[in-house]
Amino acid sequence: MANTSRSGSTPSPARFGFSDAGRAEEQLRAAGWWSDSGPVAEPVVAALSRAPDPDLALHSLDRLREAVGPAWSELSGLLAEDVGLRGRLFAVLGTSTTFADHLVAHPEDWRRLCSDRFRERTLDGYTSVLLDAVHADRADGAPGTPAGPVATVCGTEAVSALRGAYRGLLLEIAGRDVGRVVEPSLPAAAYEQVAAALSDAAVAALRAALAVAVAESGFDEDDPFPRLAVIAMGKCGGCELNYVSDVDVVFVAEAEEDLGAATRLASLLMRIAGASFFEIDAALRPEGKAGALVRTLDGHLNYFRRWARTWEFQALLKARPVAGDEDLGARYHAAVQPLVWTAGEREGFVGDVQAMRRRVEDHVPADIAERELKLGRGGLRDVEFAVQLLQMVHGRSDESLRQAPTLEALLALGDGGYVARADAADLVDSYCFLRRLEHRLQLQKLRRTHLFPDFDDAEVLHVVARALGLRSSGRTSAGQALVAEFRRHLNRVRRLHEKLFYRPLLEAVAKVPTEALRLTTRAATERLAALGFLSPEGALRHIQSLTSGMSRRASIQGTLLPMLLDLLATTPDPDGGLLAYRKVSEALAETPWYLRLLRDEGVVAERLALLLGTAKLVPELLVRAPEVLRLLSDTPALAERDQEEAATSLRSAVGRYSDPGRAAAAARSLRRHELLRIACADLLGLMEPTEVFRGLSNVWAAVLESALDVSMRTIAAQHGGPPPARIAVIGMGRLGGGELGYGSDADVLFVCEPTEDADEQLAVRYATAVVEQVRRLLGAPSQDPPLEVDIDLRPEGRQGPLVRTLDSYRTYYDRWGEVWEAQALLRARPVAGDRELGERFRTAIDPVRYPVGGLDEDKVREIRRIKARVDSERLPRGADPATHTKLGRGGLADVEWTLQLLQLRHAHDLPALRTPSTVEGLRVAAEAGLLDEQDAAELTEAWTLAMRVRNAVMLVRGKPDDQLPKKVRELSAVGAALGYPQGVDSGAVVDDYLRVTRHARSVVERVFYEF
Q: Which of 370, 365, 376 is nearest to 453 (CA)?
């Protein structure tokens, strides 16, 4: 219904906050959102009205409409449907003229803000985008090293490509940052998340610029490649960068003979980055701008030991290697950090830092001092100087304070008692407000500024306030509210700065030698370090917490811990294992048998240490299913329990509940028990992989059966009669194949049939209500791995009905079924519900999935085309196709599609090939001569390894991931979960995976693609 004013006249855009109503109406009409009777697309117009500057947003959108041309209809339609796109795009356009210019110049970039492709990027993701912009080759090494990627686009073309790609990344970050202002339903982006993303984007920019610099430098045998490391300082080093800022760096070369070439490479990097992204500031190097641009590591260390001033050590607090030679950068960082934490002992150290802050403040021009939110009184520098001074004084003895990001350091100071918790909380609140305000000011024209708007400029203040989420309240305008907030935070920061920065305690503590401040027992820390604990002080704190006091519990822990520490030392993550042990012990502190079991059953302690030092998922489940601990001393109960018995027990226990919520809670509890039992047996090497897959599948099927049963009973009771339909659950995908992993969803179809004398429409409505309740019960939030019921493989996909009758399925597959649907049905089998109906469904689909005469060549080509598209489009951006277990080369999809093509072509004539199991299907294919035995063995090995790696990653990280980890510690833990012996290089895990999947991919290319 059209909107009208109270008088009945045609509404004006002015009602939606547009100041130039005539121009706004013209632009809204051109967009198709306004008619003579008012707004046509009110949600869109209303969202525009919530933009920080609605007129600017609409004007920029009008420019974008002209730029996108025929694609406007698509964009316009998505704006009406996609709340995320609407919020992000309108907020950005209503804040920044520069991003509007970018979108006009790059009209396709609006798609970056669409919800279906919008996601947080990692550093690798940012780097990949920028390297792709200059068509860098895909090398394994870091950019700026001999084995690293080199750009194939140089000069002005590279600068233009990098500038556009980098602006596109900033657009994504800005969309996440300000989108909630327009659409409150969008998730909030905390300041630290935005700052970290901007820092990652800047680091990626440095790496991409380095790849271009290498290409332009032309190193060869006569001019060898130098080893150069780029060290980020300042806000980039602290992962707290602004939208627009110089990036402070220091350059380090490996050897004196590298200095000439390294200086040339560093200069090229600075030129390319300055033209493409931001200015590079190398003034924090030894001797400042008067010093050499590049020095060797020894040159840096000699300078710091002999001539460095206090502020230079303060600057090193945030130093971190970000580009170039990683080993050299790591050695620089390791070498300078001890110097940072001894600088506090220098004579007059505290006074030097205080005097420097006063000098900075004195240099702020008087006419802007009260609007200078970075350097002025109560500004950002007040917080940062206070935090850094406290860090450098107290961090000599307390390593928890050695944090580069200001907020993390501030929180650590509060946790350690060096700052009152209330003061720390107030400083965090004010610092975040000032940084967000700084970001909004810079976003307007993507210019470097730290100056608050003129207090009398109501129009600008209004826009900035709205960009921060402030709105008018009563007689107070948004701009006035912003000024009041700004002054409140400045006053609070200044008060706390003076309280902390000039406290007499700092001088007193700084005069105490570092060794005298250490409260830990040296022998204990040395022992822990020798055992392999990376943070012996942290480990000692865990031990002290577990053994403190005079209780019986503390006494038993004191007896157990020497043994447990030795056991944890043999695991991939001793520190994480000890932390997990402490958490489990605290959670089970009131469980009377817990410590007694560990003390009296040595095998339990041994197995528990291995589990906790390897897998994060185990302690997460263990604190909620502690009864599984008892099974660690009973191998048959742990690993040899009959799978059907476990499923039957689960169904029986849940069946005692009539309330759906209590039944679902019981199902979750029993599933948690089984999940943990299987995980423990798996990690301890007590179960074969196929048994693990089958056990997880049976647990899922039992949960589905239980949820279906209680839902059928409760929905029937609501209708006041017996169930009017029989329902069967058909497992698809890996559930159908009995090959689920720890983090797998359940792909299913639901089929129903009216009971005697029941109306078909009533039966379908009843079954649909049942299915909706099943999904609701199982999909409820939980701390356990999720129970996602996926029915997207049903006819017509997400647009199709949740449930169909058997006849409806027959009709659909006979008339409209496509080859990919026949392929999906290859793994279909009844897993829950009415067994007889499930078997009739299986019989009904046999002619579809096992076609007479196999497939004609057109359908074979169609399957290959679909697979090729999956290979090119479904792999996540930034994922490594060589180590992606699901969609990578020689991974799960490769093997499964190869078998499924053979089944579609030959299963009609070979009944033994009609199996939903991948491993069984490969065995039968080899016996029937469809696969060479060696090929079948290689495919089976690759598929099994990929499944095991996926499971191992889930166990190690506590969350699903299809990518083999890159971090050495996680990779070592994955190797341990796979059964590699202690001490094996983590690289062997990758090498073995690459070898196995490479062989499998060769088979896939010959058999599936017939290359």
A: 370
